[in-house]
Design a protein that fits this description.
Number of helices: 1
Number of domains: 1
Largest sheet: 5 strands, antiparallel
Strand order of the largest sheet: 1-26-25-22-21
Strand content: 35-45%
Helix content: under 10%
Distance between the termini: 9 Å
Radius of gyration: 20 Å
Oligomer: single chain
């Protein structure tokens, strides 16, 4: 995907907007999604009875009116230490998943403490951010098998969790290492629907800084059975990694062809079979520069462009992509950490954790814009 492709803004012929408006602009292809909640950071899941369920802190909440309200609330963990931060209590920061046979699995980061030594550029003693797993066999009424799957300093909660065709659950964890201080990635795989987990090899791209290295990855299973990972970096592109054993080990690791700012992408397989990628372009539409920052963030200046959030589709497992469509823009505001929930086949609910974008869109309105 070339820079001109990533920076393209494709609108309906009748729709236009100034290069940057003083307030938020939403592409007319998308309509506001009205809810009492804004900026979902944990996935929404469908229940067999038509309801919706998601996580809010140490509880699941349920909607029976298509997400307008979420009145039902069920505590996840109420055992020993439930009132103590750092004791492995769900906080809503993580990934929520429903397996093919209906098991609910929550993988979440514990309360994080990051003390960063600016002189050494490393995480200091006392920093923490463990990752835990818990699951429910009865639609969220009760929860079992709570345990720690990673001990260390997880920098950011997992971006997504997938189930491969052989039944494996795969979740990536980014964490800090020192000498020099940076982020690396390791996947955790469960072959028993979240009851137990084992870890794969470490993906280490080097770097130096509390926002440097390999971090905030997103994944999808390809049609040929490989798992494809897109990794946030500070090097103007996503890097990519491939697993040939359902997400456990990663041997092919390289720069991808997809340019992006230092922001995470969100990669998902749609009901149609297409892939969708939500991301922040390297530069604003029509421009070829943006403010860069380095310092304690990274050892190279990186573009932190997040004033536009975009979506692009692929019909051939990421070999080619449709022209990106900007969903929303707002100057001086971060619109990032995007997430797509396919409410019904071809009907998208799109959210951003930063900037609280919340819109509805249709796949059919996007697929005819080709590269």
């Amino acid at each position: 995907m070339q820079r001109t492709l990533i920076c393209s803004l494709i609108l309906l012929a009748a729709a236009s907007a100034p290069a940057f408006a003083a307030e938020r602009w939403i592409n007319p292809l998308f309509k506001p999604l009205e809810m009492e909640r804004r900026g979902f950071t944990t996935p929404i899941l469908k229940l067999d009875n038509g309801g919706l369920i998601t996580v809010d802190g140490n509880a699941v909440i349920i909607s029976r009116d298509n997400g307008r309200t979420w009145p039902e609330r069920r505590t996840i963990y109420a055992g020993p230490g439930a009132d103590k931060p750092g004791a492995g209590i769900p906080s809503g920061a993580g990934q929520f998943f429903r397996t093919a046979d209906g098991v609910l699995v929550l993988v979440y980061r514990d309360a994080r403490v990051l003390n960063w030594d600016k002189d050494k550029g490393e995480a200091m003693e006392g920093s923490r951010g463990d990752v835990w797993s818990i699951r429910s066999l009865d639609g969220g009424k009760t929860w079992i098998d709570r345990h720690k799957i990673f001990e260390g300093i997880c920098g950011h909660p997992p971006i997504n969790l997938i189930q491969t065709r052989n039944g494996n659950l795969v979740v990536p964890v980014q964490y800090y290492v020192n000498n020099p201080g940076r982020n690396v990635i390791k996947t955790y795989v469960s072959a028993d629907r979240g009851k137990s987990w084992r870890s794969g090899n470490t993906i280490d791209l080097g770097g130096h800084g509390h926002h440097d290295g390999a971090f905030e990855p997103t994944m999808v299973e390809l049609r040929d059975g490989r798992v494809w990972m897109l990794i946030r970096t500070n090097w103007d592109h996503f890097w990519e990694a491939f697993s040939e054993d359902s997400g456990l080990t990663w041997r092919t690791i390289r720069p991808s062809r997809i340019e992006a700012s230092t922001s995470p992408g969100y990669l998902v397989r749609l009901a149609s079979g297409r892939l969708a990628l939500l991301f922040n372009a390297l530069y604003p539409e029509g421009q070829n520069t943006f403010e860069r920052r380095a310092g304690q963030y990274s050892n190279v200046p990186a573009s932190w462009h997040r004033e536009e959030v975009s979506i692009t589709l692929s019909e051939d497992d990421g070999q080619t992509w449709s022209r990106p469509v900007i969903i929303a823009r707002e100057k001086g505001t971060w619109l990032s950490y995007a997430y797509l929930f396919e409410r019904e086949p071809g009907l998208f609910w799109i959210f951003t954790g930063q900037g609280k974008v919340q819109v509805i869109g249709l796949e059919k309105d996007l697929v005819w814009w080709k590269q």
